[in-house]
């Protein structure tokens, strides 16, 4: 199997290294708008590099897209037009109209597209989903999701990120849908700025919370921040009428009990998402090999990305207008 990779930044380089380690992958060829960066990454990894404009002529069996968001639509469409199965890190596009345009463009094709929501491939989240599906938790009454980054990204990233809900919370929105098996009907969201001014300058917030009402009446809360100095903290509580489970409470969770006699977790805390989800990223890419080989359909398609994006959009409208927002208001 010969795979291409477009975008040799941090996550792209990590994915290329993972791909070349799979026995089924015979070769990896990388490309980037910055040809020098692609060549440097290729040299370090021991793989090929080509100019981005030549990537689709490189005899690919599949393509992994880790380029900047504004390049995602064009690369997805080009891959589908070329008959090449494509894996693309989220999002499909920078906004809902762009996402819908891609879906409309590729809708008639049978070339598979997989979108990167790696939490679906994390062992803890998969176990929580199985517990819900088995009925062992009873009926769900509450889900509590958190994504707490230890430090903010650069100002230039924030200015083009789409905002905390679209850039960060979208992972929680996707995993709530996936674990619960339900759809979100209404949201109410708020945000705050306690940190750097560049968040407010970009029309964004550095901390946010949202309450989601699912289509069966289950309530979910999502808490987000860019300033969790204790470390990277991503968890999900799934609570039912019979029992409950928690994802993310392991030895490296950045939590400290102040109850007498409770020993601290050994740590150290995860420094970021790459370290916390490294096994999930590997499993996700293994799943993509099955998609490329025709052994399995895409486990997370563009329509799933759109569904999570709708929730993020509704949260952003709710935050700005300080009111509950039904998902039907943002669906197009």
TrEMBL record:
Domain GFO/IDH/MocA-like oxidoreductase, first and last residues per copy: 125-241
Transmembrane ranges, per UniProt, are: none
Q: Write one Pfam family the protein is assigned to.
A: GFO_IDH_MocA
What residue stretch is flagged as signal peptide?
none
Q: What UniProt keywords apply to this chain's record, in alphabetical order?
A: Oxidoreductase
Q: Ranges for the Gfo/Idh/MocA-like oxidoreductase N-terminal domain?
A: 2-116
For the keyword Lipid metabolism, the answer is: no
In terms of InterPro entries, this protein maps to:
Gfo/Idh/MocA-like_OxRdtase_N, GFO_IDH_MocA-like_dom, NAD(P)-bd_dom_sf
Similarity section: Belongs to the Gfo/Idh/MocA family.
Please state what the protein is called.
Myo-inositol 2-dehydrogenase
Organism name: Amycolatopsis bullii
């Amino acid at each position: 199997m010969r795979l291409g990779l477009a975008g040799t930044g941090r996550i792209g380089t990590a994915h290329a290294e993972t791909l070349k380690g799979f026995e089924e992958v015979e070769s990896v060829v990388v490309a980037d708008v910055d040809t020098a960066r692609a060549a440097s990454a290729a040299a370090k990894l021991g793989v090929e590099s080509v100019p981005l404009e030549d990537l689709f002529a490189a005899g690919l069996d599949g393509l992994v897209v880790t380029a900047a968001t504004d390049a995602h639509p064009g690369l997805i469409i080009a891959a589908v037009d070329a008959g090449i199965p494509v894996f693309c890190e989220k999002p499909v596009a920078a906004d809902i109209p762009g996402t819908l345009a891609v879906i409309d463009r590729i809708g008639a094709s049978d070339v598979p597209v997989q979108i990167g929501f790696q939490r679906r491939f994390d062992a803890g989240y998969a176990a929580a989903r199985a517990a819900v599906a088995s009925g062992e938790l009873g009926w769900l009454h509450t889900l509590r999701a958190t994504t707490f980054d230890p430090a903010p990204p650069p100002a230039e990233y924030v200015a083009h990120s789409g905002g905390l809900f679209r850039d960060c919370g979208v992972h929680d929105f996707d995993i709530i849908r996936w674990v619960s098996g339900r759809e979100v009907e209404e949201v109410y969201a708020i945000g705050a700025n306690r940190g750097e001014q560049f968040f407010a300058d970009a029309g964004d917030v550095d901390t946010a919370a949202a309450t989601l009402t699912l289509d069966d009446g289950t309530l979910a809360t999502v808490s987000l921040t860019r300033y969790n100095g204790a470390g990277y903290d991503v968890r999900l509580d799934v609570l039912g009428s019979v029992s409950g489970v928690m994802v993310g409470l392991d030895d490296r969770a950045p939590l400290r009990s102040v109850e007498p006699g409770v020993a601290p977790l050994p740590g150290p805390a995860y420094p970021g998402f790459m370290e916390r989800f490294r096994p999930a990223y590997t499993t996700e890419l293994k799943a993509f090999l099955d998609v490329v080989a025709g052994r399995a359909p895409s486990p997370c398609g563009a329509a799933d990305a759109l569904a999570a994006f709708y929730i993020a959009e509704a949260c952003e409208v709710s935050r700005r207008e300080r009111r509950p927002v039904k998902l039907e208001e943002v669906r197009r």
